[in-house]
Amino acid sequence: MERGLSPLQAIMHAHRRVRNGFTIAAMDDISKENERILHQVFNERSTEPLDVMVERAVNVTESFERQGNCDSSFPSLDGSCNANGDAARSMKAYTRLVSANYCNGRDSPRCAANGGALPSERAISLAMRSNTQRTISNDVSYAFTAWGQFITHDIIQTPDVLGSGDVPCDCTGTAPQCKEITLDNDPVITFPCLFIIRSSSQLGQSGQGTPVREQINQLSGFLDGTTVYGFTSKHRNLLTDSDGMHLRMQSVKGNHFLPSVDMINDNGIKDKFSTSSALNDKGHAELVAGDTRVLENPLLSSLHTLFARLHNNAVDQLRTINPGWNKSRVFAEARLFVIGVMKEINYNEHMPLMVGNPGMAVMNSIGRGKSKNKKRANPDGHVPPSQDNPSIRNEFAAAAYRFGHSMVPDDFKSANTDMSQKRSAKLENNFFDPDLLFRDGAGACLRGMASMEAANVGGHYADATNHKLFKPNTLNHGVDLLAINLARGREHGLGTYHELRDWCMNHDDYGIMYNGLPSMQNGWNNVRNMYNNDGDVDLYVGLLMEQPMQNAEVGPTAGCIIVDQFLALRGVFSSGQLNTIKGWTLSKALCNAMEGMGSIQANLFKKAGTGQNINCNSRNMAGMDMTAWRDESAQSGTGDVGGGEEEDCIDRFGNVLVPPEGCSCKNAKKNKCPGICRDPKNNGAEVNIPEGCSCKAAIKNKCPPPAGFCFHKKLKVQFEAICGDGKANCKRAMKNSCSDICHNGDFENTLLTASKPEGCKKCKKCIQDIDFSQRKKKSGKKNGK
Ligand code: HEM
Ligand SMILES: [Ca+2]
């Protein structure tokens, strides 16, 4: 928990939590190097040819070590090996549907086509608010919206430029890493300005051969369970239980919750998952998941809980069905199952409601192989999702898929088994606060999510997101997510609404989603009049204000961008596994993994009361039939049928082990490789093996003389202790009960032996010059004994 932050610092802290993932040092180094290259080209006017500089930037990014193995039959963690050129793996730049539109043609936020200033993002946000009505969807529940956020967090996280301090923007418009949003007599917000930190980027080259700033995706862009498992081996290992198969959980009031930061012994985890006490103000320990945004709102945290539990349930099933599978195989197959279920829900339940008949017509026609996007299926399991470029599109990340922000309501709810309301909580008081989740449990929260209404997509955000995003408990407002989204689009140099609308309308496959020019929602004329020229309208503004397509939540231009993206990310499973996954819906997942379930919508994304319900108590709903995953070669129960990925070798404490050639990681973890010796009872601390002694004996402090060194576990030092009988007896030596030595506990000087004064029986009693009080204080406090 971060305490003592000013209100603005607390907001910044939360915003940074949303933007910056659980990285490893190599990733941060790559980001810094990329910024350096950008600076060289844009500010120092490097004389090297652009091609050379771009190649250098690409090489920098490529230097990020793969978090997986291309020979594996399982998808890698970071999305590497899934597509040609490792497209869409973690740390790759976004691609664009239309050329970048920066004010200076290279890297400065977009301006009006005539070079003039655009209206302030906050002014547009307020104009959208006052010119539009907020209406409630007749079709979808809040689960529809929440799912969009959960999927976002699997495929997209654009990090801030590194190295900016607590409040790095001062509203003077001078700091290069800041994109400021000017305020003019603001009705609610009391800060001198709003601001965002610019997105970390890489040097790219536009179609016209000019250098441009291209933003980076920190995540694996594939829909591959990043929210559950993280995108680095280190993170995945820290989330894995000591049995190597289950995900770590904590039990609270008899139910499984995500693990708390206190349970995971890693400073990076504490750093990236802690929240500010001005938001998380009831003092709950933060929860840890595969994504750093897990606590952003309590219903999102509940969805994370659902999929972690689902993984663990799948592990239990797979172990029964295939007792011969080894641990890493069980983990990998459970992960594959979880990813399969997520995809099934996303493509079968979520997308049809989002893009409606027109969008699904395009999805289906291309899926059946009529188009250039045709996929190749591989009957043996995981298949690269796309032979085309599956990268995340900038227009999708920075505008189109943010449509869900306008659907988020002010009041979040939990529900009882019969779906009646249990509790209502204001979102403005629950950003980065797991209170609702801890009070009512994940089951009640997800039932609440299904019972809640969602607003229609449009220009009128809820108060919680329009004025009070990340509101600290000491202030009566926060910041404006709508203005932030607009600033982000400009800062990324996104094309305008007209540019994207034209691209989509003229597209061979997507043009059919239009029926002439899209019709716009009420208030459109007033909003577009904010701009000097129609051609300047921000992409996000146009997307929110198009009338939705038939049975869709979004209009044709957002639909086009979304369909294009999800076509690129679609993958294929083997037919047997596909049959298992086919039956899965979000409601079935809730029935399987959530406590207190009764009757809920069959399609959870549909507004309660508008469609069929199902009862979780029917066997078909709550069960998990994994027979298609049965492996005849794994029925013997020896636990040696492998197939898991080969990864960096990291033990369960997160220590990176480097097995010498010819020794496996498995053996390294078991202390069976020469030169590797770690104490499992001491968080895997390194133990030196004295010559002529074994690791096992060294850990137990049982190495005989002359090798006789003792390892003091608490102080993590080795010392020499040869008792009077000539034997090394560490236990006795540490207790000062050897016949001839006393020591003062100051083991920092490694080789400390003191001879016992003559006639002395107990060191403690007879040695004055050895300061035992010192020792007591030191080790006594440290060890709490
Ligand atoms: C309570 C609900 C939500 C909150 C508080 C929230 C907040 C945020 C914030 C603060 C950002 C970063 C903005 C920036 O600096 O550019 C963001 C990004 C984003 N959000 Fe949300 N969001 C919510 C729900 C949703 C939903 C429902 C969707 C989609 C259906 C969504 C999609 C996105 C996308 C695509 C991004 C861009 C991610 C990136 O580039 O890193 N969000 N959100
Ligand atoms: Ca992913």
List the helices and strands and how they pair.
Blueprint: H1 7-19, H2 25-42, H3 50-62, E1 92-93, H4 121-131, E2 136-141, H5 142-155, E3 178-182, E4 193-197, E5 201-205, E6 211-217, H6 226-229, H7 233-239, E7 250-252, E8 255-257, H8 267-273, H9 298-321, H10 327-370, H11 394-398, E9 411-415, E10 421-426, H12 435-451, E11 453-455, H13 463-466, H14 481-491, H15 497-505, H16 524-528, H17 539-545, H18 556-568, H19 575-582, H20 586-593, E12 599-601, E13 613-615, H21 619-622, H22 665-669, E14 678-679, E15 685-686, H23 695-699, E16 709-712, E17 717-720, H24 730-734, H25 763-766, H26 772-783
Antiparallel strand pairs: 1-6, 2-11, 3-4, 5-6, 7-8, 9-10, 12-13, 14-15, 16-17
Helix pairs in contact: 2-3, 4-14, 5-9, 5-10, 5-12, 9-10, 9-12, 9-20, 10-18, 10-19, 15-17, 15-18
The structure holds protoporphyrin IX containing FE and calcium ion (CA).
InterPro entries: Haem_peroxidase_animal (IPR019791), Haem_peroxidase_sf (IPR010255), Haem_peroxidase_sf_animal (IPR037120)
Region (Disordered): 366-391
Binding site for heme b: 405
Give a quick precis of the structure:
It contains 26 helices and 17 strands. The protein is mostly helical and 785 residues long. Bound molecules: protoporphyrin IX containing FE and calcium ion (CA).
Which percent range describes the beta-strand content? 5-15%
Please report the number of helical segments.
26
Which CATH architecture of the largest domain is right? Orthogonal Bundle
Structural class: mainly alpha
CATH superfamily of the largest domain: Haem peroxidase domain superfamily, animal type
- What's the end-to-end separation, in Å? 27 Å
Pfam families: An_peroxidase (PF03098)
GO molecular function: heme binding; metal ion binding; peroxidase activity
Region (Disordered): 366-391
Subcellular location: Secreted
